[in-house]
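Action item from last meeting closed. Structure (457 res):
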């Protein structure tokens, strides 16, 4: 009985390649994750068959990278009707990487051992033959998995200069798996930062997001700091290293930011906002007048939101992702008190946006936990959550589109065409309705439109 249970569709691809007289191995991250074990997203196959031979063995294929030996074998459709498949790549070697991203050339090789020799990390250089139930591990990857160690295949400097993203991939895997990195990798990364600096921002962002999805992203972020990678990706964070805060925080700004990232539960975009929530503190820092050993950070959320926007643009985040990060950094410093009136609660919801409230509360919970003083986040959050839930249940108008009249109604009532005046009146109406929700009727709003329209403007 095979030692690993793999999907039938993947096994069948390997079986057909074997039946055609070719070797076929599962390779890369899927083998690593089978051995750990952990969930597997994709299975990749390496084979001695050349692309035309692969295409000849299977009815449905797509030549997704045929110049590099890769053919996608389509294995069936999912529940939505989309084709699913397995990437099958011919055993290959690689030429130099002059652009620090892709090999200038590839050539096919005869054995799986030669193919594994070009890979980056030992734990990614293990192959498994599901037909013969055979593991091929020429670089000690299984041993390193047991030791929970990230180690390069061969010389780390050489491996990392080939593809400038590999150093960040190594520290990302350390965070994702909770592994240590070998000393040779720590020594190599500072020597290859020139290659890393040539990597496209989109690739760096994708690796960063994978790291931020780890149970403890701080493992990778600290390694990035120690090796010089962080100075190339998020240099703004380094301004907080050693910056003392005040009696409310046990850590400096940098350590608090990393801890907040760990403690904030959510997707990578939310965790990026958590990492950057106090990025403005170093630039806003002022000694507390009554105690110069402590710092105050007045309006650091405003400074930080501008910095977060620049960072998001540099990392090529989408518009929606950028808006989430910037908004969360901008609004994370809310101070709820029991004397907030219902209109104040509604204005808070309007300012933050109903869709952003869960993220903001998750960030605040992470912020409280990461102060290092053993505080319970719910002591700050339970009351404001209840007030917000109450306001949402009341279905008050919280944005212009919730008003009982729209822009076309304003133009009809005032006999005007489109223009900034219409938008200004709608915003005034929303403010009136925020103060008194009973005004949100067509009749009451029409009267207000006439009143506002009679003023200067």
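Sequence:
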């Amino acid at each position: 009985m095979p030692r690993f249970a793999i999907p039938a569709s993947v096994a069948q691809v390997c079986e057909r390649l074997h039946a055609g007289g070719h070797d076929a191995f599962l390779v890369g991250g899927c083998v690593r994750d089978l051995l750990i074990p952990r969930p597997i997203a994709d299975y990749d196959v390496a084979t001695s068959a050349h692309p035309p031979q692969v295409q000849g063995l299977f009815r449905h294929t797509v030549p997704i990278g045929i110049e590099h030996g890769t053919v996608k074998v389509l294995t069936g459709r999912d529940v939505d009707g989309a084709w699913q498949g397995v990437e099958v790549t011919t055993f290959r070697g690689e030429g130099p990487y002059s652009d620090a991203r892709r090999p200038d050339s590839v050539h096919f090789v005869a054995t799986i051992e030669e193919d594994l020799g070009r890979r980056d990390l030992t734990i990614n250089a293990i192959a498994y033959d599901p037909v013969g139930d055979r593991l091929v591990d020429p670089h000690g990857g299984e041993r390193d998995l047991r030791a929970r160690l990230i180690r390069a295949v061969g010389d780390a400097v050489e491996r990392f200069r080939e593809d400038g993203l590999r150093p960040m991939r190594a520290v990302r895997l350390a965070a994702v798996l909770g592994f240590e990195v070998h000393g040779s990798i720590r020594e190599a990364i500072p020597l290859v930062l020139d290659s890393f600096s040539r990597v496209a921002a989109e690739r760096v962002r994708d690796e960063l997001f994978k790291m931020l999805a780890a149970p403890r992203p701080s493992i990778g972020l600290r390694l990035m700091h120690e090796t010089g990678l962080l100075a190339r990706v998020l240099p703004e964070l380094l301004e907080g290293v050693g910056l003392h805060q005040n009696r409310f925080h046990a850590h400096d700004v940098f350590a608090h930011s990393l801890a907040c990232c760990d403690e904030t539960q959510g997707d990578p975009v939310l965790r990026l906002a958590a990492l950057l929530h106090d990025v403005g503190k170093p630039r806003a820092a002022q000694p507390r007048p009554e105690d110069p050993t402590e710092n105050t950070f007045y309006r650091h959320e405003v400074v930080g939101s501008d910095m977060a926007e620049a960072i998001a643009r540099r990392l090529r985040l989408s518009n929606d992702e950028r808006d989430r990060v910037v908004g969360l950094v901008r609004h994370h410093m809310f101070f709820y008190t029991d004397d907030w009136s219902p209109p104040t609660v509604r204005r808070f919801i309007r300012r933050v946006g109903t869709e952003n409230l869960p993220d903001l509360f998750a960030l605040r919970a992470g912020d409280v936990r990461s102060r290092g003083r053993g505080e319970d986040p719910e002591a700050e959050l339970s009351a404001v959550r209840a007030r917000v839930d109450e306001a949402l249940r009341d279905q008050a108008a919280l944005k212009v589109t919730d008003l009982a009249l729209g822009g076309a109604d304003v133009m009809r009532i005032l006999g005007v065409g489109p223009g900034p005046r219409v938008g200004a009146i709608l915003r005034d109406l929303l403010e009136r309705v925020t103060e008194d929700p009973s005004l949100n009727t067509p009749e009451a709003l029409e009267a207000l439109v006439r009143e506002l329209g009679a003023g200067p403007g």
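Note appended to the action item: Residues 236-394 form a domain with the Hypothetical protein af1432 fold (CATH 1.10.3210).
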